[in-house]
Amino acid sequence: MFHAPVAAALAGVLVLQLLLAAHVDAATLAALSPGQSLGANDTLVSANGVFVLGFFSPRGGDPSRRYLGVMYARAAEQTVPWVANRDAPVSAAAASSYSAIVTADGELQVLEGDRVAWRTNTSLASSSPSPGGNVTLTLSDSGNLVLAPGGGGGNPLWQSFEHPSDTFLPGMRIALDRRNGAGDVKRTLFTSWRSDGDPAAGDFTLGLDPLGSAQLYIWKNKNNNNGSANNSTTSTTSTSTYWRSGQWANTNFVGVPWRSLYVYGFKLNGDPPAQGDGLMYYTFATYNSSQLRFMLHPNGTETCYMLLDATGEWETVWSQPTVACQAYNMCGANAQCATAADNGQPICTCLKGFEPKSATEYDKGNWTQGCVRSAPLACEQQNVSGGDQFVDLPGVKLPDYAVWASTVGDENACRQLCLGNCSCGAYSYSTGTGCLTWGQELLDIYQFPDAEVNNPHLHVKVPASVLETGSKTRRWTTVIVVVVIVVVVVLAACSFVVWKCRRRIKERLGIGGKEQKKIPSIMRPARESRQDFSGPKQADPEEGENGKKCELPVFAFETLAAATGDFSSANKLGEGGFGHVYKLWNAGKGEELIDPAVRAACPAREALRCVHLALLCVQDHACDRPDIPYVVMALGSDSAVLPMPKPPTFTLQCTSSDREVLFRVDGADESYSACDLTVTMPQG
Prior knowledge:
Distance between the termini: 153 Å
Helix content: 10-25%
Number of strands: 37
Structural class: alpha+beta
Low-confidence stretches: 1-24, 225-236, 513-545, 651-680
Oligomer: single chain
Number of helices: 12
């Protein structure tokens, strides 16, 4: 074993020893030449110490299995973007029994004793033109392991970037080569690990669409027989589509609208998809090329990571797929998938103009059969008025199997192109994607949850009758909504009026929680009672009508005459009706109303307050009169401010219905003096 010095390697040796559990005999190499070998604890380091090549056991895996891999030297945890012998580990039982060598013929091999566990299958003799000279193995700061002649000069015989594992690094290519025709398609494929602790080829593979649509796909293998990493450029047929990126729109994929990959230097190179045959590839390059990586996980999720220099930790930039609707064609043909906001479960609905192919299965949640047209297109029928129109779907992932019309330069031309072709079922146009058209089956439509997603709109062709039906339905819906609102408003207004007038209504109808107060018969000034002021015969003076006790007793005229000696002046305590008293009080002569016998004993202020309250108690309208509790309070407190009494009126202000209730009159409307039942002082 030969030991080659490395500039500034002293600082990196300690890190490499910790990562690879190296012992004191470990060697740190800058290059590996024929005749040299990389032992169990030796490492090959890139020029600036960004990456190292060495043997390792996966974290969380079987420690007895050892693999040759490229690792990040500055990451806090073991991170392996490329593995050589991923499907053929060597045993860790005897460290001296395995190694990596470069043969004189120009081949990199992983040996376990005499057994070749893995090889690059290259040779100087088979290369054209023959490079001549020795072959050297070096590791670049981009993570690319290169086997090249003449100390790294000339064209490489082999490089790891063309034979990837599960990680896409800056400077790598995701390529599709159709230059030899459709029968000889070559692709760069990335294959996941079998598990986090097992780097063997797993169940998921990522690569470019072999049909040339420039979309990235993740396929799920139907079996676990993927072949070796060296055969990763060979197309696999026993797979099913698991995820699709959507069409490339110059700065991002339409299936990943929230992340502009262009800022990471991600771009499409080579021949455009419409040409069919040719070479196209995606690549990306950043300012610090070692800081980003795209990794295909064992569960089929692709994740972009960024290395944080300060801590050596990996920060997740984005991942796909992470929800059920992002999986390929979750809802079947001619349907769209939306994610429920509450539980994240998929919600499948047929596109407008379509219905479930099997309503029973669709209701059960089995959406594989998808949807079919509810009515044929007008172009498929004869003598159909209205023709075909388009339903606009914004904010969606465009369907699979699009056809790019490279000669169409604006949206109207794209629309007319689809209208003129009866086999066209939808179209989309944007400056990023150009004009795309689809056939009659629209697959893998995902409704993004963010309404502000700036994605190209999808326009689905439907017969005009579908839109007219929807328009009529919307019109009837609008009419019904307006009518319901008007009815609700009217009912609410009526209810409010009834609530405000409930007391009056109850008084008119004689119903309610409290029994209506009835005016005693002596207070009803019928025509005959006004002639002699006697009024009708009164019942028990202590009882009102229906035997209810009255708040104040009411006496018949005969009773009052007998009690006062036919209203003798000797028995008179005072005189004056409401009008007379109000006039003296309003003129500031209220003290004249006080009996001289009590003037000395009663302060004038208290007497005038009693007169003030008395005037309020005989106001014409009940709403102006104080109730008994207020009277008691006002008499017991000088602080209560009393309202000014209103002047008396001499005509009752009431409606015809009021008269019928109060006075029991029949016939024409009449006015009654408000002083019918008062004692008026005679004049002259």
